[in-house]
């Protein structure tokens, strides 16, 4: 009896240990629920907004260990302001230089938590061939079992403000266009 009780406790302990590490998983970005938008003041009168329609990437997430990795690529030719002439200017060498730099990349391996929720993701943003650190703060975050996909989905709304001149995007600064650009990232990723 004593031997079987110890065996049972050993199996239970091993199961508990592997259950904690079993939460580590890979996720694929869901492009239908993932949007990257930016906002910049237009002479203090209005706000110019646009989004990128094409993006792809992966997320590694371990809730138990409170760790994660993100690798997202954004197609600069997919910038969409709702105005084709403005989109063409955004893609030009003045701004995103899409012909020379067809993608923007964000890579992160530092997740910060508030309890069980991701509170921010820190990483490196590559834009116009230059890389600099960026921290995205979560305004909300959750994981849920999707009734349609029959898989776990994790995601949240993240935002930050960057100084675009740090990446060499200087267009219009001498006319009074601000350096600061607000980035808003809505992301959902599906467990693979």
Automatic annotation (TrEMBL):
Q: Which UniProt keywords apply?
A: Signal
Q: Does the keyword Signal apply?
A: yes
Q: Which residues form the Lipid/polyisoprenoid-binding YceI-like domain?
A: 26-190
Question: Which residues are the signal sequence here?
Answer: 1-24
Q: Which SMART domains match?
A: YceI (SM00867)
Keyword tRNA-binding on this protein? Answer: no
Which Pfam family, any one, appears in the UniProt record?
A: YceI
- Mind telling me what this protein is named? Polyisoprenoid-binding protein
Organism placement in taxonomy: Bacteria, Pseudomonadati, Pseudomonadota, Betaproteobacteria, Burkholderiales
């Amino acid at each position: 009896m004593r031997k079987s009780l110890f065996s049972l406790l050993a199996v239970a302990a091993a199961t508990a240990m592997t259950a904690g590490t079993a939460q580590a998983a890979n996720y694929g970005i869901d492009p239908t629920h993932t949007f990257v938008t930016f906002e910049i003041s237009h002479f203090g009168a209005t706000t110019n907004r646009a989004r990128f329609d094409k993006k792809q990437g992966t997320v590694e997430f371990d809730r138990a260990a409170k760790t994660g990795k993100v690798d997202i690529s954004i197609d600069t030719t997919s910038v969409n302001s709702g105005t084709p002439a403005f989109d063409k200017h955004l893609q030009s060498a003045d701004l995103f230089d899409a012909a020379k730099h067809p993608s923007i990349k964000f890579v992160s391996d530092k997740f910060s938590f508030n309890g069980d929720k991701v509170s921010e993701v820190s990483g490196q943003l590559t834009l116009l061939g230059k890389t600099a650190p960026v921290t995205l703060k979560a305004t909300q975050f959750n994981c849920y079992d999707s009734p349609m996909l029959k898989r776990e989905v994790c995601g949240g709304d993240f935002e930050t403000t960057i100084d675009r001149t740090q990446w060499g995007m200087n267009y219009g600064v001498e006319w009074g266009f601000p350096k600061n650009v607000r980035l808003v990232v809505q992301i959902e990723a599906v467990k693979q």
